[in-house]
Amino acid sequence: KQEVTQIPAALSVPEGENLVLNCSFTDSAIYNLQWFRQDPGKGLTSLLLIQSSQREQTSGRLNASLDKSSGRSTLYIAASQPGDSATYLCAVTGNTPLVFGKGTRLSVIA
Amino acid sequence: EPEVTQTPSHQVTQMGQEVILRCVPISNHLYFYWYRQILGQKVEFLVSFYNNEISEKSEIFDDQFSVERPDGSNFTLKIRSTKLEDSAMYFCASSDYRANEKLFFGSGTQLSVL
User: Fold this and answer.
1) Is A102's CB within 8 Å of B41's CB?
2) Over the stretch B48-83, which tens digit does the pLDDT of each residue have?
3) DSSP calls for A59-110
4) Cβ–Cβ below 8 Å for B105 and A96
5) Mutate which of B36, B101, B103 to disrupt the A interface (most A C-beta within 10 Å)?
6) How far apart are CA B90 and CA B103, in angstroms?
């Protein structure tokens, strides 16, 4: 059964800092991996999707990498801003629908 | 940008009552999903729907739950007799021509069962 773990559970950084969020999954037979952003009491916004054949994807200040063989992904956020404060969720899909991690709650302090 | 819309945003109901949560997926999408998130816990898969039938469901999706696409635009989740433990945020999602490809999520319905 696929399990997704995200470390750290919470992170607080000063504005302008570069940061890395980590995601690991137990079954490497995935089709793709998605990173989502969730604001309190709100829905899920897809940030990046990495296909299993890809190593990374970039969107603006966000860069996500995937190492399928080791079951790991990282989300790199450059020059963090207070508006980046949210919970970031990692999710993988393979033979099963999306399986989510519990998320990393990020606070960027001005 | 097209988006998935869900109504209502909040629903309060008494235990044992039936509730229907509504979703309008993105118009050219073919796969539809319901997920839920109990406060403080992970987002969990409930059910996927394609070609007017359930394609996959989780252990959570028991006989109390049903889904329907009553017309060309709406996708509904019905809970027949709500329990306290059904209190959660329910998310609808859709994807285009391939199952489990990039999912687009709605903003959710917060269901509170009293």
Assistant:
1) yes
2) 999 899 999 999 999 999 999 988 789 999 999 999
3) ETTEEEEEETTTTEEEEEE-S--GGG-EEEEEEEESSSS-EE---EEEEEE-
4) no
5) B103
6) 15
